[in-house]
Amino acid sequence: MRSLISITDLSVEEIQSLIDTANQIIADPDRFAHVCDRKKLATLFFEPSTRTRLSFEAAMYELGGNVIGFSSANSSSAAKGESVADTAKTVSCYADIIAMRHPKEGAPLVAAMNASIPVINAGDGGHNHPTQTLADLLTLYREKGRLNDLTVGFCGDLKFGRTVHSLIAALARYTGIKVVLISPKELQLPSYVKKDVLQKHGIPYTQTTNLEGALPQLDALYMTRVQRERFFNEEDYLRLKDSYILDPEKMRNAREDMIVMHPLPRVNEISVAIDSDPRACYFKQVLNGKYMRMALIMMLLEVKA
Questions:
Q1: Distance, CA of 257 to CA of 240 (rounded, Å)
Q2: Contact at 8 Å (CB) between 254 and 221?
Q3: Within 13 Å, how many C-alpha atoms sit on residue 57's CB side?
Q4: Residues in the chain, pLDDT under 50
């Protein structure tokens, strides 16, 4: 039995296998419509989510399975003081696989250590969000045709952005990757990510505060929102929230084949005018996330089409 807590739990070969399965699902969804008949997914969401929770639910339903769970800590026994470990043990009696989102870093790992069924980390604090990374990797692969030899720019909240940390950790294992880090000084990528991931893997990276200056060299731009919920005070959030706004004028500096990605939700860091630009891929990412979660559920439940 396996769980997925960090993107690095998967080898590069396993990621490629998931991408291949996702592409097969896209090409022939009917073939996969009953592979999880009589299986149940428990969605344990201790933190608000729209996309991730609904994506997991849609993924399980489209594989023929069922879903149980809750969408806020207030509606679970956590409100009574139940530990994550006990919740995991209890839910293991009802379901075949768990997807958990939790505001505390490490909570899904604790769940995985105590559950008797696979646990998928659906986001823990500012730490990890591996299934978003799988969505990102499938998007890059389908849009650019490769995961090697890419220059990827990350813009916005690089300090608290768990999606950024996860994707950088994933890309660091491919060849020819270059990273451009675009953020205000207060929201720079944490030094431990630079040291333990970028430097350790010999990934060339540059840091800048200038989005427009960075655009011409990028194959992909990964925009992120400044996350109000990660700030200790409102004043800092208000000062930094509009640091970068991608609009059509800025996009003139970008290559014709550069893609724009965003884990969503967007606030105002990407102008809605960009939505009609063929380079905008953030809603494709949403769809790709469903397909990769379908592939992942199949892998962890060891079912095949």
A1: 29
A2: yes
A3: 14
A4: none
